[in-house]
């Protein structure tokens, strides 16, 4: 695979463009913002979404989806709630058989669809893959060691994608569990907001560890209900990403939670940011999906109540801690 197209030039699309360029691909990066295109092409930096990190001068940016779509494989790196729209826009430009690799993490609010389900519904002639794992964009862009899960049903095509994207500092592991590779990456953003609240409100490291562990139980319950394999949820895209995102204020989701824990309002925090905190949207989507599927997810529900339904934080914490005692099971 000689040419890789990247749709979406936020921090993650830009970092993945760097990974593909390091692997030897010719990379075309599509951005919505003309100032991102100018910054990448003229100064080899994405000054809006990944400032201060030098990019490979061979990466070419464009605002044209059609131009980026003329590729041997395409990475879809828009925010999750915009992925379906991007697929619709791309469809006329895609050659049948060209794989699309979903790199967004989330669940569609409107439909409860995983990203692969939305892409497969819109792009019936493209093989769909999922790339997910513990990956802060800045670290990948700088070439720090990183490992991810790459899930795809067609193993031979998957091996070609590993070769096209992987390298000495970016190590993808192959899986055929598309559902499993998406559940962890979506739900961990919601749990990272909760861990941020714990941090911002000085509730202690015990509380954060409890949240990660009982959050993993929620991921496992939802995953099982949706058909994920348990081993995938214990891998890079599950436990790996949950651990990373719930342990570092580099995470936009955790830092958003920390600001809320310090008493700031969601509108105020979102108003200051250009970057996406997917957990805000996934909290709503996963709470709705869990209710429809009959899956108990009290932590995610609590985050949704705090973010989207004006619930009082002290009352939420109290309600979680005074639930009936129970056996420790998933
Ligand atoms: N940044 C990371 O470290 C990282 C790592 C792994 C996965 N991801 C995932 O990648 C996806 C993209 O995140 P990011 O960090 O690259 O974004 P970002 O926060 O750096 O930038 C925001 C992006 O949203 C785009 N955008 C804004 N409004 C839009 C609209 N109406 N339609 C389409 N696009 C719009 C912007 O053009 C920009 O590309 C998310 O699902 C995120 O969870 C991010
Ligand atoms: O900064 P966040 O919270 O969007 O997390 C980025 C990545 O998803 C971590 O794997």
What does this structure look like?
Sn-glycerol 3-phosphate binds at residues 105, 133, 135, 188, 241, 251-253. InterPro entries: 6-PGluconate_DH-like_C_sf, 6PGD_dom2, G3P_DH_NAD-dep, G3P_DH_NAD-dep_C, G3P_DH_NAD-dep_N, NAD(P)-bd_dom_sf. The chain is α/β, with parallel strands linked by helices and 330 residues long. It has two domains: 3-176, 3-Layer(aba) Sandwich (Rossmann fold); 179-321, N-(1-d-carboxylethyl)-l-norvaline Dehydrogenase, domain 2, CATH 1.10.1040.10. It has helices at residues 11-22, 34-43, 65-69, 83-90, 115-122, 137-142, 155-165, 178-200, 205-226, 230-233, 236-245, 252-261, 266-271, 278-293, 298-308, 313-321; strands at 3-7, 26-30, 60-62, 73-76, 100-102, 128-132, 146-152, 170-175. An eight-stranded mixed beta sheet has the order 3-2-1-4-5-6-7-8, with helices on both faces. Helix 15 runs antiparallel to helix 16 (313-321). The longest helix has 23 residues, at 178-200. It starts with a strand and ends in a 9-residue tail after the last helix. The site of nicotinamide-adenine-dinucleotide has 24 residues, from helix 1.
The unreliable regions are none
The CATH architecture designation of the largest domain is: 3-Layer(aba) Sandwich
Mean pLDDT metric: 98
Number of H- or I-type helical stretches: 16
The helix-strand sequence is EHEHEHEHEHEHEHEHHHHHHHHH
Tell me the number of structural domains.
Answer: 2
As a whole number of angstroms, the C-alpha radius of gyration is 19 Å
Question: How does the helix and strand content classify structurally?
Answer: alpha/beta
């Amino acid at each position: 695979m000689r040419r890789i197209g990247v749709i979406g030039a936020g921090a993650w699309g830009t970092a993945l463009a760097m990974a593909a360029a390091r692997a030897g691909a010719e990379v075309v990066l599509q951005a919505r913002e003309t100032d991102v295109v100018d910054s990448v092409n003229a100064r080899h930096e994405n000054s809006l979404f990944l400032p201060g990190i030098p990019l490979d001068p061979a990466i070419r940016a464009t605002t044209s989806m059609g131009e980026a779509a003329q590729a041997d494989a395409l990475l879809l790196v828009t925010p999750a709630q915009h992925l379906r729209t991007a697929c619709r826009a791309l469809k006329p430009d895609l050659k049948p058989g060209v794989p699309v690799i979903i790199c967004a993490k989330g669940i569609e609010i409107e439909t409860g669809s995983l990203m692969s389900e939305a892409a497969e519904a819109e792009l019936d002639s493209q093989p769909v893959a999922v790339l997910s794992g513990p990956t802060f964009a800045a670290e990948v862009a700088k070439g720090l060691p990183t490992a991810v899960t790459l899930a795809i049903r067609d193993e031979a095509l998957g091996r070609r994608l590993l070769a096209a994207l992987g390298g000495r500092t970016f190590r993808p592991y192959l899986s055929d569990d598309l559902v499993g590779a998406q559940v962890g990456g979506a739900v961990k953003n919601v749990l990272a907001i909760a861990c941020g609240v714990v941090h911002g409100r000085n509730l202690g490291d015990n509380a954060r560890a409890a949240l990660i562990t009982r959050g993993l139980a929620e991921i496992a319950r939802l995953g099982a209900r949706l058909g994920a394999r348990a081993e995938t949820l214990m891998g890079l895209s599950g436990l790996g990403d949950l651990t990373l995102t719930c342990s570092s204020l580099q995470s936009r989701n955790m830092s958003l939670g920390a600001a809320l824990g310090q008493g700031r309002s969601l509108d105020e925090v979102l108003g200051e940011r250009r970057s996406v905190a997917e957990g805000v949207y996934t909290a709503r989507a996963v709470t709705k999906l869990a209710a429809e599927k009959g899956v108990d997810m009290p932590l995610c529900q609590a985050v949704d109540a705090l973010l989207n339904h004006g619930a009082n934080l002290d009352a939420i914490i109290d309600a979680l801690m005074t639930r009936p005692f129970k056996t420790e099971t998933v």
